[in-house]
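Hi,

Apologies if this is the wrong queue. I'm a grad student, and the batch job for Neutral metalloproteinase from Streptomyces luteireticuli produced an output file that my downstream script rejects. I'm not sure whether the problem is my script or the file. Here is the sequence I used:
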Amino acid sequence: YEAVHSGTGNSQWSGKVKVNSVKSGKNFVLKDTARGGNQVFNARHKVIGQGTFPAFSNPTDTWGNGKGSMPQTAAVDAQYGAAATWDYFKSVHGRKGIRNDGKGAPSYVHYDDNMDNAFWDNDNFFMAYGDGPGNKRPFTSLDVAAHEMSHGVTGATAGLYYYGESGGLDEATSDIFAAMVEFHAKNPKDPADYLFMEKLGAKPERYMDKPSKDGHSADYWFKGLDDLDPHLSSGVGNHFYYLLAEGSGAKTINGVKYNSPTKNGKKVTGIGRGAAEKIWYKAVTAYMTSTTNYKGARSATLKAARDLYGTKSVQYKTVQAAWDGVNVK
Ligand code: ASN
Ligand code: ZN
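Support response: The file is valid. Your script probably expects a header line. Output copied below for reference.
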């Protein structure tokens, strides 16, 4: 047993945050024994197999300086993101870690050279975060951490194949939970939204209310959707989820303006995030399988809504209306 120490982190994207550590000799080590032992390691611009990755250790329990120039800072963001995601799945869904076994996962920061991405390695069970172009912009925002860890949850449950429509559902699941983690975390430096990667660039990478705003993603199901990259066919799932939770039309949340259309022109009234996230989680963890497509996702979410609220409920009927709205029959 290692006692939990509550340290202070100066993150790059989420302001001043709490990070847990353990004591090792005279130093503190960035390891969160309150959350399954989530721990951050320094890949020092290498990839797994290229030597060992040291833990982050420090003579004081204050970490990072809020800037990408200090290697510890990315570790703070990664540790905070893993903690916020852990807390979301535990308190909202009763899930204890990615595999629901109470065990944390390692995060590798400064991964690879100039890697303009982050990823979840489902075979080796770790998250990796690159430092971006010129190793100058760590890919470590809260939504990215939550997106990657949610790939772990999907991998441990539905196991959606990462191609075709099942791949789109895998990506949508990660974007959906990334958004819900932001709403749960209530971090004043990163107000919650239905955008993905809004902190990292001039524009968000994805928009859930109207996915085609990014210039590439699909708003509605069409024949041939399965030929798109999963990050684009995810648009249909993201759009469904936005309609289910928030409804169609114009809406402002935390200062961000949304305007969500439906294919059939019919109005959808949202059931709220609290019901929507429970339906999606139950659908992914209890009903979706590796080959589930959008039609299958419709039936999986309807079964989840039936279990949770009954077939006569407004929640059940709104699941139908939201799928109709994105042309999934
Ligand atoms: N960050 C990306 C993702 O999680 C990495 C990838 O494309 N596999 O989807
Ligand atoms: Zn992804």
